[in-house]
Design goal:
The structure holds two protein chains of two kinds. Chain A is of the alpha/beta class. Chain A contains 16 helices and 13 strands. Chain A has two domains: about 140 residues, D-Maltodextrin-Binding Protein, domain 2, CATH 3.40.190.10; about 170 residues, D-Maltodextrin-Binding Protein, domain 2 (3-Layer(aba) Sandwich), CATH 3.40.190.10. In chain A, helix 7 crosses helix 9. Classes of the chains: A alpha/beta, B mainly alpha.
């Protein structure tokens, strides 16, 4: 027994030594594309990666789902094989992020807009189809709503939809949505709630005078149990809506698209969340999706150039491409052409900090 | 006396109720899991006569596997089955009933055996996941056409293929032989299982010797003083620390400081080592304590040194308990996903990892990723992956029980 135990210890040390040296080798070069970023773009980027990996001589890119902010942080950490080549984002890069990138030597960033994603406000298929305005959504979901007088705010008193707007049915407000860490929540708050919030003139005026207060009013969701944080899993929200016809859920268009016999989207400002309405911009709650690539990595990391080309090819992001089958809303023809040309020429982002 | 009896009766009743509730919950959990996941072990396949046409595959007389148009071969074969489909729109709908994996299958066949060029091969290729869901009854064909993802025409085509014996559900081999995929019909757990195995290997190789050595030292050699008490309290504390904390530690130490690669099973194994060490140390110490002092005293009395006593007598007798502890620690490590979040193992990785530094995911992480996928066919595959994970855990825990029963010694 004494010998076996010693042998085990020796093996352990030997294995550790071997693996450490092996990892040193692995880091010297990387033969696959390394992508990080948004969980909203993840379902699209992974499809592209898989098709690319299977149809080219390169390995399949590795895609980590880190969230937009986390992805940009990793991306901006530096240039070299240890750092990601591409980061996906459900929002545009911020100036502060460009600056922090530049501070770490990441200067030439290629911005690629890939299409649009709609955010839907849905309920069970058997329930009544709602006709909402963004102002209704704001009044139903904000923590504080405007009171009688200008400049006065009151704790959100509404408990039923008919109190918000007499045209709506008298059912209790009950909304399931993503947690604050989610990009979908950010986009919903910015596009739907803020859009409705601005309808009150004195709040809209605040935007220029007291931006923080404006944001606090427009972006804060009520916490009295009417809005339920249902986690990041949109499949779960769909299941809960099926079980409760009075509840509403907030999630991405692709989940509506995959569950058309279970849930339906409410009309927002008179427009239903359909593929076409999101594509031509008529549906108000939609956002562009992006990815960012490092110019310095192109032709250093095998397959990166090909991956960028595949992502921006017509068969991927075109009107009838495979990404549209997955629920990505394509950009207009001309915009696609321009972005694809920019990618071909590796034209970097122009807001680079000096 | 009757009061005492009554008390005993109530206590027993409460115990039985508690156990009953536990069993009911477990039963509901397992039955819903099996009800959902069982169908994922089957997959719908189509039989197609695919002509490996030289003119299509090798236009210039030179076959280039990377760029040859295998899709069009599959499409031609499908059109031959259903010649009445003519309009462009109908054809597009027709192509959707077969998986994109069909073309990969043809390519792999030709790669293995280039001599087949120019022949016609009869192949069973996977149907697309929506058709698979339709066949399995997860999509209701009686709903209004606008409310389901398959059209009336597609249903008619599928029915005619089925009538011709060209469509069958068979065992879903891809689930066990493929890595991850975004096409549910091609997605498999092999990559995740391999990732988990590599991690467990690292964990076992590191945590077992270290854990046992620490336990022996603390139990047999260490002086009893304030320091050893402090260490003991800390080890017990560590065993109760939420696992995500170990993930953060791993991120800071192994990735940021030691510059090991992200998403690698090596780092995952190191993090899980930290996680299982306290469990193994505690179990090993308990089994060392259980060795009767008379054995130690007898050996010492016969002139053995302290080290000889430990390695010749105590360790062999305590080994079954230590192994049980190690297996239980391993099965805890297998089920962990939270610490892996922090070290980049929540990733889409198609290629099955072949070494400790290749990017990999683990089985629980794969379950998490599939549960979050919009495609409906991933729901049943999620349950299937959970069943496989539970199977592994069951085998490991069973091994621990058997080992204990076999090697246990009574004094």
């Amino acid at each position: 027994m004494c010998n076996t135990s010693k042998a085990a210890v020796l093996t352990a040390i030997a294995t550790l030594g071997l693996t450490l040296s092996a990892s040193a080798f692995a880091q010297a070069g990387r033969d696959y594309v390394y992508v990080v970023g948004s969980s909203t773009v993840y379902p699209f980027a992974t499809v592209v990666a898989e098709r690319f990996g299977r149809s080219s001589e390169f390995k399949t890119p590795k895609i980590e789902s880190t969230g937009s902010g986390g992805g940009l942080k990793l991306f901006c950490d530096g240039v070299g094989v240890d750092y990601p080549d591409v980061t996906n984002s459900s929002r545009a890069i911020k100036q502060s992020e460009v600056d922090s990138c530049a501070a770490n030597g990441v200067t030439e960033i290629i911005e690629v807009k890939i299409g649009y994603d709609g955010i839907v406000f849905a309920n069970a298929i058997g329930a009544e189809t709602m006709q909402l305005s963004r102002a209704d959504l704001f009044l139903a979901l904000a923590k504080e709503v405007p009171g009688e007088a200008d400049g006065e705010l009151v704790e959100n008193p509404f408990t039923t939809w008919s109190e918000v707007n007499p045209d709506l049915p008298a059912i209790r407000i009950e909304v399931l949505g993503p947690p604050p860490t989610s990009g979908t929540r950010d986009a919903f708050v910015e596009l739907a709630m803020e859009g409705g919030c601005k309808a009150t003139p004195w709040i809209a005026a605040l935007k220029n005078t007291d931006k923080n207060r404006y944001k606090a009013i427009c972006h804060t969701i009520r916490e009295d149990g009417v809005f339920v944080e249902a986690g990041e899993n949109d499949n779960l929200i769909v299941q809960k809506l099926q079980a409760n016809p009075n509840a509403f859920g907030i999630f991405g268009f692709s989940f509506l698209d995959q569950n058309i016999e279970k849930v339906k989207g409410s009309l927002v400002d008179g427009v239903a969340p359909t593929f076409d309405a999101i594509a031509d911009g008529a549906y108000p709650v939609s956002r562009p999706l992006y990815f960012y690539a490092k110019k310095a990595h192109v032709d250093v990391i095998p397959g990166l150039r090909g991956f960028l080309r595949e992502f921006t090819s017509e068969r991927a992001w075109g009107e009838e491409g495979y990404l549209s089958d997955r629920g990505l809303i394509p950009m207009p023809d001309e915009e696609r052409r321009d972005v694809a040309a920019a990618v071909r020429d590796l034209r970097p982002l122009s807001m680079a900090a000096e | 006396m009757p009061r005492r009896r009554r008390r005993e009766f109530t206590f027993r009743l409460l115990g039985m109720i508690a156990t009953g509730i536990g069993i009911v919950f477990l039963g509901v959990f397992f039955s819903s899991l099996v009800a959902q996941g069982a169908s994922a072990f089957k997959q719908t396949y189509l039989q197609l006569d695919i002509e490996l046409n030289e003119d299509v595959l090798a236009p210039g007389g030179q076959l280039d596997l990377a760029y040859a148009d295998f899709d069009s071969l599959v499409r031609t074969a499908l059109r031959k089955e259903l010649p009445e489909v003519s309009s462009r729109q109908d054809r597009r709908a027709l192509y959707r009933i077969v998986s994109v994996g069909a073309a990969y299958q043809v390519r792999d066949l030709l790669e293995e055996n280039p001599g087949l060029l120019g022949t016609t091969q009869t192949l069973w290729v996977p149907a697309s996941s929506t058709i698979d869901m339709l066949i399995k009854g997860n999509i209701d064909a009686n709903l209004e056409e606008a409310l389901r993802p398959v059209s009336d025409r597609q249903i008619a085509w599928v029915e005619s293929l089925r009538a011709a014996g060209r469509l069958e559900t068979r065992f879903n081999k891809a689930l066990f032989t493929n890595g991850d995929s975004r096409e549910p019909e091609l997605a498999g757990i092999k990559g995740a299982v391999m990732g988990s195995l590599y991690m467990l290997m690292v964990t076992l190789v590191l945590s077992f010797p270290i854990g046992v050595a620490a336990a022996i030292y603390l139990e047999e050699f260490a002086p009893r003083n304030r320091w050893s008490d402090l260490i003991e309290v800390n080890i017990n504390n560590l065993a109760a620390v939420p696992s995500i904390v170990f993930g953060l530690l791993g991120l800071a130490v192994f990735i940021n400081w030691a510059a090991l690669p992200r998403s690698a099973p090596l780092v995952g194994g190191l993090v899980l080592t930290l996680l299982t060490l306290p469990v193994i140390i505690i179990a090993s110490r308990a089994s060392i304590k259980a060795v009767p002092p008379s054995i130690r005293e007898a050996a010492l009395g016969l002139g053995a040194s302290q080290t000889q006593v430990v390695f010749h007598h105590v360790l062999p007798l305590a080994m079954p308990g230590m192994l049980t502890g190690a297996i239980i620690g391993m099965s805890r490590a297998l089920g962990e996903s939270a610490p892996l979040l922090m070290i980049g193992m929540i990733a889409f990785i198609v290629d099955v990892p072949g070494s400790l530094t290749d990017p990999a995911t683990a089985l629980p992480v794969q379950i998490f990723l599939w549960a979050d996928s919009p495609e409906r066919a991933f729901a049943e595959r999620t349950s299937a992956a959970i069943i496989v994970l539970l199977g592994f855990l069951l085998v490991m825990n069973l091994a621990a029980v058997i080992l204990r029963k076999r090697m246990e010694r009574k004094w």
